[in-house]
Design a protein that fits this description.
The chain is mostly beta strands. Helix content is 4%, strand content 37%. The chain is built from four helices and 31 strands. The strands form nine sheets. Strands 3, 7, 8, 9, 12 and 13 form a six-stranded antiparallel β-sheet that branches. A four-stranded antiparallel β-sheet has the order 15-17-20-19, with no helix packed on it. Strand 22 and strand 23 form a beta hairpin. The longest helix has 7 residues. The protein is elongated, with a radius of gyration of 36 Å.
Length: 500
């Protein structure tokens, strides 16, 4: 499939495109080159209305030209009309299918690359003579612009980024009756990313539009689609894309690529302070020979704890099972898989699992608003030729439960306002409350005057103990008589809390 352009006064689409050549436009629902449906038709696959003007009328009326560039190349900064099968390289802008020696990418891109679709629209309906559309001059209103990789729409609005000839009347393309240059033109530059599931793809532009005047039927939406790359597009040497890439050229994704799944924790998790939470990271290769994965390392700018090559030379004594394992989702007995040099490279859909634990010390909380810890990092995968791809990892957040305790001390006898004499007895009362979210155990209470106060029970969240004890005032006690009470406790994981 392809498209052609030619210059006529200013650069225009070729007559083949104007006439609705079958290679250039795909119907949604019938053999017609362009489809139409009523605005009242709720079925997106509804049949074309035979009463509408002929498909060639509307295929002729709207000219479309997509070209795809790599973000590393120079990009057009304004409206340019593609120059026939040479598209935009005569202007010095080289698309991804151009040979590397000519400034393109040779049709090869990598996962994570950003591509930019340049899309050109023109209202051709009013051109004179034999090149005019049989339906006559019409006003076109573009209602939607969808960019696809093969048949999958790319997220984002290409319509919103269009530059229109009349900013005060966007989405409208007027005809220019009798003008051989055609009518209004519009364009956009639409960036999108190469994903891990992409292998070979076309970039398709689907335009939905309505029209008034000529033979247009009010209330009907037409749809036209065109794609890049086309087989007959040319390079500066004169070779066509078909010569270089075969009869059905596609953009090819090369290099290693993989997906990451966080197996554990499977979703948001609540942990006690200092709980050892197991993490399992599943890496699945998405490329086969020659891009099979032969090595996995840390991203040096965003390392992922315990999934790096260093664990083999320096095993973690606190987590000896940490590392990579094959064909399992739980650590077996050693040996682990040495990802510094995979003896069995990972081909398409082959996984590895990295296992490790993280101790939920409250100090590692990295979201102070939600009081959660989210593990993030990156891995780098390599193929045999040294090409690499970075993969970001973000695990579900872990909420670390609060562990805390409070103690309140008061004098119940005598009245603190009256005072106390030597030899009299003072009665104290203490109230200890578990103000956290986890049970507390091993409570210890020490009064600076009377020493330890025995408490043997555990303390559930929101529960409290009340204890009374006495002290006899002696000759050596200071005046005023001051004492403090300190309470400590531990969680089941050994985290200590204190208050006084």
């Amino acid at each position: 499939m392809s498209y052609k352009f030619r210059r006529l006064g200013v650069l225009l689409f070729a007559a083949a495109l104007m006439a609705g050549l079958a290679a250039f436009a795909l119907t949604l629902v019938s053999p017609a080159y362009i489809s139409a449906k009523s605005a009242e038709d709720s079925d997106p696959g509804g049949a074309d209305d035979p009463a509408l003007q002929s498909p060639s009328d509307m295929d002729c009326a709207l000219g479309i030209g997509p070209v795809v560039f790599h973000e590393d190349n120079d990009l057009p900064t304004g409206l340019l009309v593609p120059q026939g099968v040479q598209i935009l390289w005569p202007y010095g802008y080289y698309d991804v299918m151009q040979p590397v020696g000519d400034g393109g990418q040779g049709g090869e891109v990598a996962v994570g690359d950003t591509l930019v679709a340049y899309l050109y629209l023109v209202n051709n309906s009013g051109r004179p003579g034999g090149e005019g559309c049989p339906g006559g001059s019409v006003e076109i209103t573009v209602t939607d612009v969808t960019i696809k990789k093969n048949t999958i729409p790319v997220p984002g609005s290409a319509l919103g980024g269009m530059t229109w000839p009349d900013p005060d009347n966007p989405q409208v393309l007027q005809a220019a009756p009798g003008d051989p240059s055609g009518g209004d033109q519009a364009y956009t530059l639409f960036p999108f990313e190469v994903g891990v599931s992409d292998t070979l793809f076309q970039v398709r532009a689907e335009i939905e539009f309505q029209c008034t005047g000529g033979n247009c039927a009010d209330g009907f939406t037409y749809s036209k689609e065109i794609w890049y790359p086309g087989a007959d597009l040319q390079t500066p040497s004169g070779a066509t894309f078909q010569d270089l890439y075969g009869s059905n050229p596609r953009i090819k994704v090369v290099g290693p690529r993989a997906t990451i799944t966080v197996v554990s924790p499977p979703g948001p998790y609540v942990a006690e302070p200092f709980e050892e939470v197991p993490f399992i990271i599943k890496l699945t290769s998405m490329a086969d020979d020659p891009d099979s994965i032969v090595r996995i390392t840390d991203d040096p700018e965003a390392p992922l704890p315990k999934c790096s090559e260093s664990i083999f030379a320096n095993p973690d004594p606190d987590d000896p099972s940490a590392g990579w394992y094959a064909n399992t989702n739980s650590p077996p007995d050693p040996p682990k898989v040495d990802t510094t040099s995979l003896t069995d490279p990972l081909g398409d859909e082959e996984p590895l699992w990295c296992h490790f634990t993280v101790v939920m010390d409250p100090a590692i909380i990295n979201d102070d608003v939600e009081d959660t810890f989210t593990l993030t990092g990156g891995l780098v995968v390599y193929n045999a030729t040294g090409q690499s791809a970075e993969i970001e990892v973000e695990a579900p957040p872990v909420s670390i439960e609060d562990a805390s305790i409070s103690v309140v001390k008061r004098i119940t006898n005598p009245d603190p306002g009256v005072g106390v004499r030597i030899g009299e007895t003072v009665t104290y009362e203490i109230e200890i409350t578990n103000t956290g979210q986890v049970p507390l155990q091993d409570l210890t209470v020490v009064d600076s005057l009377v020493g330890p106060i025995p408490i043997t029970d555990d303390l559930p969240p929101d529960d409290q103990f009340v204890r009374q004890y006495t002290y006899d005032v002696g000759l050596t006690d200071p005046s005023p008589l001051i004492n403090t009470v300190t309470v400590t406790a531990r969680t089941a994981k050994g985290f200590e809390v204190e208050d006084s």
